[in-house]
Design brief:
Chain A has 330 residues and is mainly alpha-helical. In chain A, 76% of the residues lie in helices and 0% in strands. Chain A is built from 14 helices and no strands. With 281 residues, chain B is of the alpha/beta class. Helix content of chain B is 30%, strand content 28%. The longest helix of chain B has 16 residues. The chains are: A mainly alpha (330), B alpha/beta (281).
Chain lengths: 330, 281
């Protein structure tokens, strides 16, 4: 237990350090002194704008997105008892992105600022609910992952259709942004909009964690020790849907962080799914903040998209984990 | 003393009757072995007792309450269930698996309170797991893993325990060890029902044998009254030689028994199996 507190403390400190680095580094490097005085509002207006309106919200957006994907990956892996379960792989992110794109495409975004997160979350919830129904029916986790991959492809296909039919280059560019995934130009308002959903989803997932520990034994034995399986499923489905949808509404589709972070954390918490949740969230947040710093510093003409970089790092890890799995485990 | 009373339990899966009017009692302090061929309905009967599978008919009571109507954690505190052992999803520590037996008491794995820690320690002691506590379950042998799961079931400290083939895939020594652990659990006051296939081992360790064929309980009584070559032919479809000396039993299967139902097209239309009213229990 003390080890867990230490791990969480270290990861939180790493999160703060990564956010600080994100404020320091960039096309115009700011010294620590300038960043600090900008943070308290005592620096030049230019510095204050760079720190408060560009770098800090962007770092926090990256952290929040990572944390959301990390915790929902860890929770889905616990529920489905498979380290490859992840919102991206299972098509949850793609469904949320599709719903968000739909809103943009039909201009529903004008209805109100909440239209985007609500759409993304609805898409995510629909996907997680469908997956859980499939999970109860098919019984095989491997089949379920295949269903998720199918769902992901389907959402991708509809997405391509929407882009194909895009009325003008601007909406096409907007849509493309959501599919590539980025935290550029995010404001505190965007974060604030997503925050209630993030917090609620996080709370639900934490409520489910004891049940996730017991699910290590398999569903039958978990029911035997007194887990209310239906309740555990509902908590994870709704929690992961809310959190993933909120992440998509902030950053669009960013894959594989939800696999990588829990995978790295698991050996440090004795592979207990309950104790994986919080460290996985923090680590995924740190990973995305660091990846976003890399994106900003990369000397490319067009700015790299965070989602592209995350996939370039994460997909090989996915393949590695999948190839190393014991045959009887899936 | 806890008592599980099952009366006229019937279960259908996919429209097919799997358990038919099964009735039995399980009281604290006794070890009962449930014997029957694969597909006889043993696992389904256990699940239906707990309410994990819906029943078509029958009444199940622990004292006055139906386990199917209890909240899952209440049920788990009154009747522990050890299903057939499946691979663990994660390579968790032995200590944590045993602690999961305390789930229904509200235990959190890494922070056990006094009562939980005490129950886990006792179960660990009983199953001789002290040296394995910090090991990852993925490094254990089948026999060690079976002991870990028995310890988990004992740690629940429920007055009743249903165990589904805890000795499956174990070598004779480990089968014997697991049965000794369950025997000790019964001697400590629990009512233990264990599904198994080794009739001789069952006869040696259990107080009563419950024989199931085609979803029916065809016999219920002490080994000396119910373990016969005819019974083995009826329940398992084997020809066997049964010998007994004191508490020791020898059961030797010599071949397949001539199937009395072979001429019939469906088991449902077969002549009803002779029901042993329960021996001189």
């Amino acid at each position: 237990m003390r080890n867990d507190a230490l791990l969480i403390g270290l990861l939180a400190a790493a999160g703060v350090a990564a956010a600080a680095a994100a404020c320091l580094l960039g096309s115009t490097p700011l010294g620590a002194g300038r960043v600090l005085s900008a943070l308290v509002g005592a620096a030049s207006p230019g510095d204050v704008i760079v720190v408060w309106e560009i770098r800090l919200p962007r770092a926090l957006a990256a952290f929040a997105t990572g944390a959301a994907l990390g915790v929902s990956g860890a929770a889905l892996q616990g529920l489905l008892r498979n380290p490859l379960a992840e919102p991206g792989v299972l098509g949850v992110s793609a469904s949320a992105t599709l719903a968000a794109t739909f809103v943009i495409y039909y201009g529903l975004i004008e209805v109100g600022a909440f239209a985007l997160p609500v759409a993304a979350i609805s898409g995510a919830l629909a996907a997680t609910a469908l997956l859980t129904v499939a999970a109860v029916r098919v019984g095989s986790v491997l089949t379920l992952i295949l269903v998720g991959i199918g769902l992901s492809s389907l959402a991708g296909a509809v997405m391509a259709l929407l882009m194909n039919l895009a009325p003008n280059p601007f909406s096409l560019a907007d849509m493309l942004n959501w599919t590539l995934g980025s935290v550029a130009n995010r404001s505190f308002d965007d974060l604030l909009l997503a925050f209630p959903f993030l917090a609620t989803g996080f709370g639900l997932l934490l409520t489910a964690r004891r049940g996730l520990s017991a699910l290590t034994l398999g569903e039958e034995a978990a029911a035997g020790v007194g887990v209310d399986l239906g309740r555990a499923r509902r908590l994870v489905v709704v929690g992961a849907g809310l959190v993933t949808g909120a992440a998509v509404s902030i950053a669009g589709a960013i894959g594989f962080v939800g696999i990588v972070a829990p995978h790295l954390v698991r050996p440090l918490v004795d592979h207990d799914p309950a104790r994986t949740l919080v460290p996985a969230a923090l680590l995924a947040g740190v990973i995305l903040v660091l990846a976003d710093i890399g994106v900003r510093l990369a000397p490319t003409d067009a700015e790299l998209r965070l989602g592209v970089v995350a996939a370039l790092i994460g997909a090989p890890v996915f393949i590695w984990i999948a190839a190393r799995r014991r045959v009887n485990g899936g | 003393m806890a008592e599980l009373a099952v009366d006229g339990l019937s279960v259908a899966l996919g429209g097919r009757a799997v358990v038919r009017e099964a009735s039995w009692r399980l009281v604290g302090g006794e070890l009962v072995a449930l014997l029957g061929a694969n597909g006889a309905g043993k696992t389904t009967a256990l699940r239906a007792v707990l309410g994990l599978t819906p029943r078509v008919g029958g009444v199940v009571r622990i004292e006055r309450d139906d386990p199917a109507r209890m909240p899952p954690s209440t049920r788990a505190r009154r009747i522990a269930y050890l299903p057939q052992i499946r691979p663990l999803a994660w390579p968790v520590r032995v200590r944590d698996v045993v602690a999961l037996g305390r789930f229904a008491h509200g235990a959190t794995l890494s922070r056990l309170n006094g009562a939980d820690a005490e129950a886990v320690a006792q179960a660990v002691q009983a199953c001789d797991l002290q040296s394995l506590l910090e090991r990852s379950c993925s490094t254990l042998s089948g026999g060690e893993l079976a002991r870990v799961h028995v310890a988990r079931a004992l740690a629940a400290e429920a007055p009743l325990l249903l165990a589904d083939e805890p000795t499956a895939a174990l070598d004779p020594l480990h089968q014997f060890q697991v049965m000794q652990l369950l025997r000790a659990g019964a001697d400590a006051g629990r009512g233990v029902l264990v599904v198994m296939h080794d009739a001789a081992l069952a006869a040696r360790t259990a107080d009563r044998l419950l024989w199931m064929a085609d979803g029916r309980i065809v016999a219920d009584g002490p080994p000396e009254a119910t373990l016969t070559a005819a019974r083995l032919a009826e329940v398992y479809g084997v020809r066997a030689v049964v010998r007994r000396s004191e508490r020791n039993w020898l059961v030797s299967v010599t071949g397949a028994a001539p199937d009395p139902r072979k001429a019939e097209s469906r088991p449902e239309t077969a002549a009803p199996a002779a029901v042993d009213p329960g021996g001189p229990a």
